[in-house]
Amino acid sequence: MTKDVARIGVEVAVDRIRIIGIGEDGPAGLTPRALRLVEEAELLAGGERHLAFFPDHPAERLVIKSNLAEVAGRLAECLGRRRAVVLASGDPNFYGIARYLTGKLSRRRVEIVPNVSSMQLAFARVGLPWDDAWLASVHGRPVADVVEGVRRHPKVGLFTDDRHTPAAVARALLAAGVADRAAYVCENLGGADERVTETSLSRLAAGGADFSPLNVLILAGEAEPAAAGGTEPAAGLAGEPAAAAGGPVAAGTGGPVAAGTGGPVERAAALWGLGLPEGAFHQRKPRRGLITKTEVRVLSLARMNLRRDSIVWDIGAGTGAVGIEAARLAPEGRVYAIEKNAADMDNIRRNIARFGVGNMEAVQGVAPAGLEAFPDPDAVFIGGSGGRMEGILEEVCRRLRPGGRVVLNAATLENLAEADRLLRRRGWERDVTLVQIARSRPVAAGRGIEGGEELSLTRLASLDPVFIITAWRPGEGLPDDLFIEEGGR
Q1: In whole angstroms, what is the distance from residue 293 CA to residue 437 CA?
Q2: 283 torsion bin: left (phi>0), alpha (psi -120 to 50), beta (else)
Q3: Rounded distance, CA 84 to CA 75, Å?
Q4: Which helix (H) or strand (E) holds 380?
Q5: Are 364 and 454 members of one domain?
Q6: What is the CATH number of the domain that holds 404?
Q7: Beta strand extents in 64-109 (DSSP E only)
Q8: Structure confidence at residue 358 (pLDDT)
Q9: Which of 175, 210, 211, 242 has the fewest Cβ atoms within 10 angstroms?
């Protein structure tokens, strides 16, 4: 069975709404067909800047601001009756109005006529390919949503707005621990006042530069040492140097941010995958190893069944190691940690900054008190209960979202027995794994028989065993159970 899909080029006067992309060069940048569709429109909708390109157009005008519901309603009334055209910036289908209107009107009642995206123009002006870039927008969205994407990708393109300016974005990224890098601010692309400025995150964060609200921010490559001026036009491009003074300031702190954020540990962590080494974390008592061991941490995270957008609780967070790894695995989600010890809280905050996880927050408290302020979780890790296991599990089991997982680490038989008893009483399914780890350790060098060659020996040193308890509601079995039920062997 096939469905008829409207073909590009087939002219039907009133059966579809046309969304036409337009650049800063106005009508001159439109194709003959796009220009004819605009000229024939009986209702012309768009932002004030777009409508100003056609001052003498006889059509009824509909200014688009924050009135999208009204605009969609008016356009729906036009279907089958009047020729309606919506003007939108660049490619309306790329972080543009087309997503909203096709959702409201049906994509088969809308024809999209794209222009060159300002993102495409920005990379062209800078002279960089963009097929390997990570593209996102902070237009009307929090910068926190893009921190992990920026951290993980060496080449980034961002749409900004008049609130999330290049300077504000730079300050937020540096405050979240993103390393300094080269930056390009591309303004009014395609217009007579187009300008491309080459700078860096740290120099942008310093402020002093004034940019048009119509800009794209590109981040690519290592930042070069600052010259006497703060910013400068990209080579061969129009624009004047924008002055910058003072040192960069962390957002909301008033304190300085180092131009080259992070030392060797921070730079290595940005490239490290799952299983961050224990020695990379700030710890209260490193000799006693009060941190979830790397191997146990990795196995516990695997049991938590995290998605990119998971909401995670880390109860009894200690150094925050599990929460930090969870935040890296769920860059579009958020981790909420709670820890009772003030000294550990200080280390958690330092570790959050060290590993630059902008999607994790920690509070000091004694769970279950304090959990009521967290949103309902998709996964919960309990690294310590402080003798309040029953109250913690009662709150966790009540609020865990469907399909969620609870993972506990227990170092003693008594804690294992208590957790199993409480979960059994609630009728929850359980799985227990005993993790016994031995790591290689060098043995003091010695000489062989009769004073022969010096020997270099290695032994295995065992770590304390740990129980990993995984729990879930009945009927929401672990993937292994599901595969078996489907007949896999």
Answers
A1: 10
A2: beta
A3: 7
A4: strand 379-382
A5: yes
A6: 3.40.50.150
A7: 84-89
A8: 80
A9: 210
